[in-house]
Amino acid sequence: MSTEMDDDSSPVRRRVSCTKYFDALWFCYSPYYQMQQYYRVGKLDDCTKKFSALFDCLSLKTKSASEAQKILEEHEKADAAKHIWIMRTEEEASRHWNETFGHLDDPTC
Fold first, then answer.
1. Total-model pTM
2. 60-103 pLDDT tens trace
3. Using CA atoms, how far apart are residues 97 and 109, in angstroms rounded to an integer?
4. Which of 29, 75, 99, 107 is 20 to 30 Å apart from 60, CA to CA?
């Protein structure tokens, strides 16, 4: 969820903004986006994920402040867990590199 800090309250209290999700849903129904999806994926997007994101954001506004804060923190932790890179130590990276590309150093190849 997109959040902004309130000017008059503590940094813990955040104001939820659903504008980003509304814009994404609005753009999803545009012919430009639909043709782009058809070209890239081979089918039109039904926009259900974007609608769900907007609905979740709007429903978050009906929650109490503490409950909303807890849900936002859970979303942030889940987003942080979706990291696309595999973090390795220097030794692990060296071993993986040699396993994957070590054969290229072999002069008989």
1. 0.57
2. 888 888 888 898 888 888 877 777 777 789 999 999 999 988 88
3. 17
4. 29
